[in-house]
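Q: Okay, next protein. This is histidine kinase from Phytohabitans aurantiacus. I've checked the sequence twice, so it should be correct. Can you predict the 3D structure?
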Amino acid sequence: MTRRWSIAGQLFALQVLVVTLLVAGGTIAAVLLARSDARDAATEEVVSVAETVAHSPNVAAALRTRNPTALLQPYAESTRLATGTDFVVVMAPDRTRYTHPEPDRIGEKFVGTVEPALAGRTVTETYVGTLGESVRAVVPIRDTDNEIVGLVSVGITTKEINRKLLRQAPAVAIATAAALALAAAGAWLLSRRLRRQTHGLGPAEMTRMYEYYDAVLHSVREGLVVVDRDRRVALVNDEGRRLLGLPGDGVTDRPVGELDLPPAVAELLGSGRPADDEPVLAGDRVLVANQQVTRFDGRPLGTVLTLRDHTELRSLTGELDSVRGLTEALRSQAHEAANRLHTVLTLVELGRTDEAVRLATEELALAQELTDQVVGAVTEPALAALLLGKSAQASERGVDLIVDRESRLDPGPLPVRDLLTVVGNLVDNALEAVAGTDPPRRVTVYARSAVDEVVVRVTDTGPGLDPDQVADAFRRGWSTKRAGRGLGLALVGQVVERYGGSYTVTAAPEGGAVFTVRLPVRS
């Protein structure tokens, strides 16, 4: 299978290619510029030398003699050697050479352009002469009467110019190699960092991973919140936004403390501590949170929090617990009823019918009195059934559950679900408070609806509640029991907060605590 290039590898190859092309282009441009500069410098040099020779009085005087070569050849050669030029040719106006680096060429015609020089101007050109291609200048020589008596041409061959450029080649090559090495090293370091950040994945793999991960993150039915090492939100999926009530944008890359999160969730995310199936409250929802620290190559990257909505499940679990408790109470009552029935039958068999009738009548009266008391005070069927079930549970635990005769709660003021949450959790909390205490163990329930509010008051004869612990009692996770999860009163606090009501906890006159909840009635 052909190995696909990673993004880092492709970037490294692309950078090396681009840098190589840039350096090569820069080098070629520099060479061409240097060559042009060298030609310009050579042109200036030959013009300067030619003008110096042409303006020498000795040269003009030598041209007037019968044998100019004898005087001019040594002078031309010494000038050529001194200036580093390749030829200094003095000639007659008809192009006849008087001097030349190659003596055999003396007397021959000069090869090149001389017409502008004969007209009194300086000629510069690149021309192929007897010594090959050269950069040359032709300058007129004037006598004292300003008459043109001859011409002088000074030149430097192109080979010599190129030879001088080649002497600079090692420096250019070293600079080019250094530039390439530095660029390659920079590209390698960048690609190494990119490879570390992309984990060596290729473009297709990253695209596929992003598409799959994005689809999964936004389709799962669990809320997901990812927080980085700086406690800034890196990712929240759709379900997480819904469960936490977060807006659709403006959430990521913000510190956890700046978001409007439920207190329990904000504390969990801010601390970064691990959590395993920990219940948290978020508005009117009961969520189960799991949080773990994420690591890569041993380095912590942040935390991942998952949230599951257990509101309905928690409600069903509560109802199931109530039904289970009622079932146990009914089973116990059935056992007690069987014992009493055997007693009545035995009394009848012994001929003591009056005592048998009295015993049976008393039991029926007690049961009917409790039912009449509850149904008479609470006409809301679901709440009445809840209180009857709690009465059976209380009786099983040896606790007297009393419904205050002043209670009066009819259907309609508030949703039944919220009433069951408040009354059921307050009664459960009271039953737990009196469990294990010395007799009398009593729980009194008062529920009454007025024009503008519903008042629920539950009084117990338990150990009471420290005033400093009242605020904590309605916070998730607080419990007087070691194994308690502390959700009952927290759910009551949620209902109170949602309706804008209030709750108070005071000491009962006979010892214990009085929990009072007031819920405004919305018209």
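A: Here is a summary of the prediction. Confidence is low (pLDDT under 50) at residues 480-485. The radius of gyration is 54 Å.
Q: Noted. On to the next one.
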